[in-house]
Amino acid sequence: NVYHCPFCNICRVGQGLGIDYFHCMKCNCCVGIKSVSHKCLEKGLEMNCPICCDDLFTSSATVRALACGHYMHSSCFQAYTCSHYTCPICSKSLGDMAVYFGMLDALLAAEQLPEEYRDRSQGNKYAE
């Protein structure tokens, strides 16, 4: 299905405003109703995807909002996160890294250190 958003002044894929999308006046974009708690970044979609450099605002491809408020195509996000874990624009983490860093700590703790370093520890910085 396709609907016309009078605020974007563009046709979008979906059921329509008030059905499965609403228009965020601050972001100036149509956002899925399930994403009511999205982080607004003024005119955040009026830029190019930081990965493929295609326009995000007029794109018919699915666009993903990052926790920091920046956007990129969902397919670009999938490819990018295979080797990166920070936003390509602001370098903020794309997710909660505490579990990942905890796993790294456990792997390092299992390693055999030289005798002079075995009794040294900084403790677990990620524990709550």
From TrEMBL:
Cellular component aspect of the GO annotation: nucleus
A GO BP entry: intracellular iron ion homeostasis
UniProt GO MF annotations: ligase activity; ubiquitin protein ligase activity; zinc ion binding
Database matches in InterPro entries: Znf_CTCHY (IPR017921), Znf_CTCHY_sf (IPR037275), Znf_RING (IPR001841), Znf_RING/FYVE/PHD (IPR013083)
SMART domains: RING (SM00184)
Domain RING-type: 49-91
Alphabetical UniProt keywords: Ligase, Metal-binding, Zinc, Zinc-finger
PROSITE patterns on file: ZF_CTCHY, ZF_RING_2
Spans through the membrane: none
Ranges where the CTCHY-type domain occurs: 1-48
Name of the protein: Zinc finger protein
Species per Swiss-Prot/TrEMBL record: Trifolium medium
